[in-house]
Amino acid sequence: MATAYWCVLAAALLPYVWTVVAKLSGGERFDNNDPRAWLARQKSRRTARANAAQLNAFEAFPAFAAAVVLAQLAGVDHGRIALLALAFVLARLLHGVFYLADRATPRSIVWFVGLACVITLLVQAALAVA
């Protein structure tokens, strides 16, 4: 079960990777006194894309964390949970990479893979307690 929990930690930290990329990609020095306004002023597409990847990663995290916990509490096979958790983290990492690279189709595919992992974990949890 530790693998899945490590994946939850990785998924929780992943948005901050894209945050750092966004802050380092701007044309001017990052202003920590007003970070949202600073981001809004940036003209760099890379900064905007890194910020979008950050926001999307934050949005994806709660459902994933809940799915892992619910699957564990429901008694879903630990190996299955770990595999789905690893697949989710890999998909989310690739999602950010494809976001930065402006590759819409692969980004959408890995976004869907991550979503499918979450749905599968939740369905497995529901079936385990039914």
From TrEMBL:
GO terms for cellular component: membrane. The chain crosses the membrane at residues 81-101, 108-129. Keywords: Membrane, Transmembrane, Transmembrane helix. Its main location: membrane. It comes from the Bacteria. The keyword Transmembrane applies. InterPro entries: MAPEG-like_dom_sf, Membr-assoc_MAPEG. It is found in: Membrane. This is MAPEG family protein. The lineage of its organism: Bacteria, Pseudomonadati, Pseudomonadota, Gammaproteobacteria, Lysobacterales.
